[in-house]
Design a protein that fits this description.
- By secondary structure, this protein is of the alpha/beta class.
- It has 14 helices and 16 strands.
- The strands form 4 sheets. An 8-stranded mixed β-sheet has the order 1-5-4-8-9-10-11-3, sandwiched between helices. It has a 4-stranded antiparallel β-sheet with strand order 12-13-16-15.
- Strand 12 and strand 13 form a beta hairpin.
- Helix 2 crosses helix 11 and helix 5 packs parallel to helix 6.
- It is globular, with a radius of gyration of 22 Å.
- The two termini are about 20 Å apart.
- Bound molecules: pyridoxal-5'-phosphate.
- Pyridoxal-5'-phosphate binds next to helix 5.
């Protein structure tokens, strides 16, 4: 087991052969702890690396480029009419309130509406246990701040959501990456690890994770709940994509499975309106046990006082108008078509040179070339061919798998999927010297 363990702190860097920007999202220069260049910022910044996905964005803007790199919600699927109407409805009764400071916990009416939404997901949560956050990304930051001391261990799936790794690195946690397969994170591995090391928290994206696209099986969710009850390890369940199920049947959330068990006080559930309504509004939420709720609200006060009042009221008006359910149906139909188009184009043009399992939802296809193919080299050829993707190495907290790549289908129609796959095949031939070797699953 020891040899399989991949204990490492920090985030794997992306070995891109490209001249990438050298600034962090906040505009600061990346941290360098080397004695040759004295580092004047807080040392914790040295543990955080710029997101490879953001770095790649500038290439996606090049004329004629087909981007499979983004992973953003499709702008053509925004319900702009519904959002306009909701904005007007949010302002009509009390415009001043929408522009005024609000409560740290969130707008009372919206918290009630979120509680109802959660009921449809099988989660019984009282409105006063729901903390409205500025996107679920803030939920991750808050979870890290209130739970993790420097040096605490947090377990993450291989591969993992990059900005969660950033949040945990900023909290100076030790990030240990756990193997996973088509059933999701390997909970037997976690059991063995936890029996020998203290673990503060396990982070999972149970539905169609970013980038892996996998669904954590019911049996493993139950096993995680039992583990949390037994050991006191916290479970951070990050579920921004659950409503975007495109095939198969829903699986009960960890939050629902933990209800009424000793694990209930150890589970945090995070979700968001970003993928189902609009990411620009920056509204998400957390469901927290009471003691943690207090702490997280306190931390949020210090960070941003409260989430945007106007955004919250707009979303409240949108939900009150009953527009979310029909919009979700539109989103699912469109994303299903886009997923299927990319899957069949890849099969047609790359055949066995690319391996993947079809995700049951979300926006991502996690794929791999034959082991000897370096996706970063293919990316270089792909830029010349006019297609862009994210090399998978960026998503590993340790021991990156260089033959992997994340492809997003959210903004790709059938015609672009076809051209994108043809260009990817061309790039692979250029960089990999042919497509003779089949990729293993
Ligand atoms: C797994 C996961 N968690 C959290 C987030 C953050 O989403 P937001 O802050 O927009 O709600 C994302 C965004 O891509 C994500 O993929």
């Amino acid at each position: 087991m020891d040899t399989a363990r991949t204990l490492e702190t920090g985030i794997a860097s992306l070995p891109l052969p490209l001249p990438l920007p050298t600034t962090l999202a906040n505009g600061a220069a990346p941290a360098s702890p080397s004695p040759a260049s004295p580092f004047h910022f807080a040392t914790r910044m040295a543990r955080v690396q710029s997101s490879a996905v953001r770095d790649l964005l500038k290439y996606s803007k090049m004329p004629g480029m087909i981007s499979l790199a983004g992973g953003i919600p499709a702008p053509d699927l925004f319900d702009t009419e519904g959002l306009h109407e909701a904005l007007a409805a949010a302002l009509a009764p009390d415009a001043a309130g929408a522009f005024q400071y609000g409560l740290t916990e969130g707008e009372a009416a919206l918290r009630e509406q979120i509680a109802q939404l959660l009921q449809q997901r099988g989660i019984e949560a009282a409105a006063d246990g729901i903390l409205v956050t500025s996107g679920s990304q803030q939920g991750l930051d808050l979870a890290a701040r209130v739970l993790l001391n420097p040096g605490d261990t947090v377990l993450v799936e291989r591969p993992s959501y990059l900005a969660a790794l950033q949040a945990f690195a900023l909290a100076e946690a030790d990030i240990v990456s756990v193997p996973s397969d088509e059933q999701g994170i390997d909970v037997d591995w976690i059991e063995a690890y936890v029996s020998r090391h203290p673990v503060k928290a396990v982070y999972v994206v149970p539905n169609f994770g970013n980038p892996g696209g996998r669904t954590l099986s019911l049996a493993r969710r139950q096993q995680l709940v039992r583990l949390a009850a037994r050991t006191g390890t916290y479970l951070i369940e990050d579920d921004p994509y659950g409503e975007l199920r495109l095939s198969g049947s829903p699986v009960a959330s960890i939050q629902a499975l933990a209800a009424g068990t000793p694990a209930q006080g150890r589970t945090l559930y995070l979700s968001s309106f970003s993928k189902i309504l609009s990411p620009g509004l920056r509204v998400g939420w957390m469901v927290l046990p009471p003691a943690l709720f207090e702490q997280a609200a306190l931390a949020k006060q210090a960070i941003d006082l409260h989430s945007c009042s106007l955004s919250q009221r707009l979303i409240g008006a949108y939900l009150a108008a009953g527009r979310l359910a029909p919009r979700l149906a539109v989103l699912r139909d469109a994303y299903r078509q886009r997923r299927d188009a990319l899957v069949s184009a890849l099969r047609r043009h790359l055949g066995t040179a690319i391996a993947f399992h079809e995700p049951e939802g979300g926006m991502f296809l996690w794929t791999r070339f034959a082991p000897e193919v370096d996706a970063a080299r293919v990316l270089k050829a792909a830029l010349d061919a006019g297609v862009i993707f994210v090399p998978g190495a960026a998503f590993f907290a340790a021991a990156p798998e260089h033959n992997t790549l994340r492809l997003s289908y959210s903004t790709i129609d059938e015609a672009r999927a076809e051209v994108g796959a043809i260009r990817l095949a061309k790039a692979l031939r250029h960089a990999g010297g042919g497509m003779l070797h089949a990729a293993a699953d």
